[in-house]
């Protein structure tokens, strides 16, 4: 197996809303907010569901890698309920090996409300459910040992059992990649994430806002300087400004694709990571990796949801 993803197993519930809905519910556009089950159901009660898909940031990347013909797997915690069943079926259909045995839990399978506004931005409201309770015993040691690389998400990091599971997975893997996931996520765990990026990860994915927040950079030049000194592979997406990879003194840039009809930005970063990692594990150049990531993210933002057909 080439890559094993470990992340929050979340069922995405996609809905279209106007800006006023976000204002009325005190939601900040383009961010992810964690809520309890009561608030989640309240928000969902007045909405029309467009689509329901097996999601989660790293899971989206792993499905993208599978669609590109790579042998991949995923670990994520679900309940043995209706959504948990649908989640597993969704991954199996995409030829992803699912290394988790469902069982009856007190908490339900995690769900993420993805609210798409007319400008194609997506605002996420997540009820983690059982996904946020992943523990070291949920980590399949054999799967990690048989994979060339693990890919983790910042969303997974939380004090207690999830952090222990995270640490266990990293201690057993040869090559470790992670996405910083979300600026609020970075802000919550800044010192821990900085330690991960500097000392434990081999590959870090971030968008410009996340990496600037992580290192308190006043401008992008400071980000580049940080990347040069890091000595690891740092990949940064910059929206319309394209993407950039930094390793030691080598800086590689890739322009974004012009004239795209953007429908929904859900999964843009996830599919970019899928394309980049596809190139990396198949011995492409850094430039080719960035180009493949750009091609994948360009496709996904022109359709609803985080899955390519």
From TrEMBL:
Checking InterPro entries in the record gives: Carb_kinase_PfkB-like, PfkB_dom, Ribokinase-like
Entry-linked Pfam families: PfkB
Indicate whether Kinase appears among the record's keywords: yes
The cross-references to SUPFAM superfamilies, in alphabetical order and at most eight, read: Ribokinase-like (SSF53613)
Please state every residue range assigned to the domain named Carbohydrate kinase PfkB. Answer: 53-307
Keyword vocabulary terms for this entry: Kinase, Transferase
For whether the record's keyword set contains Kinase, the answer is yes
| CDD domains registered for this protein in UniProt | adenosine_kinase
The record's family statement is:
Belongs to the carbohydrate kinase PfkB family.
Q: What is this protein called?
A: Fructokinase
Name the Gene Ontology molecular function terms of this record. kinase activity
